[in-house]
């Protein structure tokens, strides 16, 4: 387990939301926390676009909601036009950063090696990286999914990672935004594999693993029933406060 023994409910807003949307969504979520204290059975992390981080961080200040970025640079500062450094992410008050999402790997050419460098830089700033790994449909169909997962896991994790300071998100590429959720057996198989590889690398299986890919209120309970699932990374359904909250409540 990482920073928590509770289920982690992480929302990835992707490139969605203007100031007004962020204000409404965040307020709607805040209003659902009746008693903002540690008795809650889950940890909620929301990851808005970079333009909204500052706004959302101030809105959730003093509440149980935590904030993450969706990406960061592997460099700390300098002539890297358009990039956002992990120092900046930390400075703005976020504590997490999603790294190696399949959309970044496929649309922006991010390799395992780059993801590992970003994660190393993020860890050095005290951020918790949520490192995404997952096979494509083709890899699933040709039987190489577990080998791909092992390779991505071992090569996307930096030297300064420990079993406690990172979170892994298993997100089968074919399940992201498609409405096709992985079967419970798929999730068990891959999470078991990740734990085996973690054992080899770190000497412990006790790493936080989120499942992501078309998690919705109607399938969340089944997903949380799996003991190997430490939480979920939610895309589309995290843009609706009611749905995101329903997913969170399915974890307790
Ligand atoms: P989805 O996205 O829930 O819309 O499938 C998940 C993700 O990409 O993190």
Structure in a nutshell:
By secondary structure, the chain is an alpha/beta fold.
Write up this protein.
With 252 residues, the protein is of the alpha/beta class. The protein contains 10 helices and 8 strands. An 8-stranded parallel beta barrel has the order 1-2-3-4-5-6-7-8, surrounded by 6 helices. Helix 1 (19-32) links the parallel strand 1 and strand 2 (42-47). Residues 12, 171, 176-177, 212-215, 233-237 line the site of 2-phosphoglycolic acid.
In sequence order, what are the helices and strands, one letter per element? EHEHEHEHHEHHEHEHEH
Radius of gyration, in angstroms, nearest whole number: 17 Å
Largest sheet: 8 strands, parallel, barrel
Distance between the termini: 17 Å
Number of helices: 10
CATH architecture call:
Alpha-Beta Barrel
CATH class: Alpha Beta
Strand content: 15-25%
Mean pLDDT: 95
Instruction: Tell me the total number of β-strands.
Output: 8
Number of domains: 1
CATH fold-level label: TIM Barrel
Q: Please bin the fraction of helical residues.
A: 40-55%
User: Structural class, from helix and strand content?
Assistant: alpha/beta
Question: Which molecules are bound in this entry?
Answer: 2-phosphoglycolic acid
In the sheet with the most strands, the strands line up as: 1-2-3-4-5-6-7-8
Multimerization state: single chain
Low-confidence residue ranges = none
What name goes with the CATH superfamily? Aldolase class I
Shape type: globular
């Amino acid at each position: 387990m990482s920073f928590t023994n509770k289920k982690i409910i992480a929302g990835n807003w992707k490139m969605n939301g203007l100031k007004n949307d962020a204000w409404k969504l965040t307020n709607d979520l805040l209003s659902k926390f009746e008693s903002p204290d540690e008795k809650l059975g889950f940890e909620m992390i929301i990851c808005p676009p970079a333009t909204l981080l500052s706004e959302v961080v101030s809105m959730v200040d003093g509440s149980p909601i935590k904030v993450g970025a969706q990406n960061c640079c592997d460099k700390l500062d300098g002539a890297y036009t358009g990039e956002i450094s992990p120092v900046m992410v930390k400075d703005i008050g976020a504590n997490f950063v999603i790294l190696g999402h399949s959309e970044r790997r496929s649309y922006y050419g991010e390799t395992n090696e780059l993801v590992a460098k970003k994660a190393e830089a993020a860890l050095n700033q005290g951020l918790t990286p949520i490192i995404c790994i997952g096979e494509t449909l083709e890899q699933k169909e040709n039987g190489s999914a577990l080998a791909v997962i092992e390779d991505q896991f071992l090569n996307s994790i930096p030297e300064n990672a420990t079993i406690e300071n990172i979170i892994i998100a298993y997100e089968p590429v074919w399940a992201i935004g498609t409405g096709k959720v992985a079967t419970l057996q798929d999730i068990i198989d891959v999470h078991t594999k990740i734990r085996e590889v973690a054992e080899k690398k770190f000497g412990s299986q006790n790493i936080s693993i989120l499942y992501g890919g078309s998690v919705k209120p109607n399938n969340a309970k089944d997903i949380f029933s799996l003991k190997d699932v430490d939480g979920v990374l939610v895309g589309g359904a995290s843009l609706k406060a009611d749905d995101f909250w329903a997913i969170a409540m399915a974890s307790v």
